[in-house]
Amino acid sequence: MASLLALTGTQPRRNLAAGDVLIAAGDEGGELYVLESGRLTVTRGGVDLATIDEPGALVGEMAVLLGSEHSATVRAESAATVRVIEDAMAFLERTPLVALHVATLACARLEATSALVVELEREARGEGGEQGFLGRIAAALGATPAPTRR
What we know:
By secondary structure, this protein is an alpha+beta fold. 37% of the residues lie in helices and 24% in strands. The model is unreliable at 143-150 (pLDDT under 50).
């Protein structure tokens, strides 16, 4: 399958300086962005959820597909360039290979989220083994995990 960078090569570019906000949580969706270069940080509710630094990464698809406001803020962590797909839903209707990329990405994220929910549920039921999932995360971060309630 062709890359998103190749499929969106004719779309306009937007240059961002470090600290610039590409997407603000609560803003209306409608545009898709494809990272060309640089590094972006996704933050929701004061928590950094992801760092995006892979050329061809897609940003803004949830708000476009759901017809909703953006649920997170995306900020340039360094100078960055994105391709801007305005009226993204119409673009997806005209460009099935891009729509397939978006669908594949959405499914991969749903699969990862579902696996996390299952892991958390197992831990809540006491099936997490000697060191549960949250304990492993805290250990990896160098923190002491809070005791879990059972």
